[in-house]
Design a protein that fits this description.
Blueprint lengths: L1 H44 L3 H14 L5 H13 L3 H14 L23 H48 L4 H28 L4 H4 L1 H12 L3 H4 L3 H9 L5 H16 L9 E3 L2 E3 L9 H7 L5 H6 L4
Antiparallel strand pairs: 1-2
């Protein structure tokens, strides 16, 4: 019996030794791979695409699931040296492994224009369009419903606040508690919208409907100017793609400008005085119409008519 125990203990020791060796090799391989990627990145950034591609190819052979940016640079490096098959293969991996992201930009990326003449490029285009449609069909309805529910809850909270103010006054404990609850809800709603945009892009009315699209924008517009300012380029790109209205973009720019410099560019922010609406602090009343026209907005006088002026 003791002999059996000794043998088993020796066998166990051998297993532990082998396991430790294996872990050590894996760790060394991981460290070596990171060093190689850094070396390849340095070569790529210095436009030494041939040597960069060689290293990326070596690393990708040993790693069945390379990182997103590694795949992009590997594809780009190979495309620059006319290794079309490898470049397209890496792009296919990039799209298929990360299908929850939008990769429309790959279709017009200057790094891959040389691949467009290759017959295999059609497969990349197909994958991108397929995953884009998949996102819209699988997630568009869910996001639309969520945004509409967010808006409905916000309206209910606002009505309750108005009722509490009428009954107890603006400075009452009841009204103050409801304002705190609304502020918490607004913060939560913004995090939801931020996640939607980071994951799926700025979704347009053709995907989530006009109401949900406007709710998404209003949540951004209601944030502090310092946060809202970061979304100006995002909303601009969304406007160019038809995913946001010109008025949305102009209102966001004007809101930030009013908070930062007490001016507005397009005159979209309106206030009311003595029964009439007016646009405060328009920066250039002479050029305002030409600025509005540049982004597809009607003349300022026509805009005023919408407010009964």
């Amino acid at each position: 019996m003791f002999g059996i125990i000794i043998i088993n203990m020796r066998y166990l020791a051998l297993i532990i030794l082998c396991f430790n060796c294996f872990c050590g090799q894996c760790q060394a391989q991981s460290i070596n791979e990171k060093d190689l990627i850094k070396q390849a990145d340095s070569l790529y950034n210095n436009a030494n695409y041939k040597r960069a591609a060689s290293i990326y190819n070596t690393v990708f052979k040993a790693n069945s699931r390379p990182g997103t940016f590694d795949l992009y640079k590997g594809a780009s490096a190979n495309a620059h040296i006319n290794k079309n098959a490898r470049a397209i293969n890496y792009l296919e991996l990039l799209v298929s492994q990360n299908h929850l992201k939008r990769y429309d930009s790959l279709l017009t990326d200057s790094n891959f224009l040389s691949l467009h003449k290759d017959k295999r490029w059609h497969n990349v285009s197909y994958l991108i369009s397929t995953y884009k449609d998949d996102i819209e069909h699988r997630y568009g309805k869910t996001i639309k419903q969520e945004l509409i529910e967010i808006n409905s809850k916000r309206i209910s909270q606002k009505r309750l606040l108005d009722s509490l103010v009428n009954s107890y006054g603006w400075r009452s404990v009841q009204a103050a508690d409801e304002r705190k609850l609304i502020a918490t809800t607004d913060s939560t709603n913004f995090l939801k919208v931020q996640t939607i945009i980071n994951t799926y892009g700025y979704m347009g009315p053709q995907i989530i409907g006009t109401e949900a699209n406007q709710v998404m924008f209003n949540i951004i517009l209601n944030k502090d100017a310092s946060i809202a300012k970061k979304y100006i380029p995002i909303v601009w790109q969304a406007y160019l793609k038809g995913n946001a209205s010109a008025n949305n973009y102009a209102a966001l720019v004007d809101k930030v400008a009013l908070r930062e410099s007490n001016t507005q560019i397009y005159g979209t922010i309106m206030l009311r005085k003595d029964g009439r609406y007016y646009a405060p602090a328009v920066l250039d009343t002479v050029k305002v119409d030409s600025l509005r026209k540049q982004i597809g907005l009607p003349p300022f006088r026509e805009y005023l008519k919408e407010f009964g002026n």
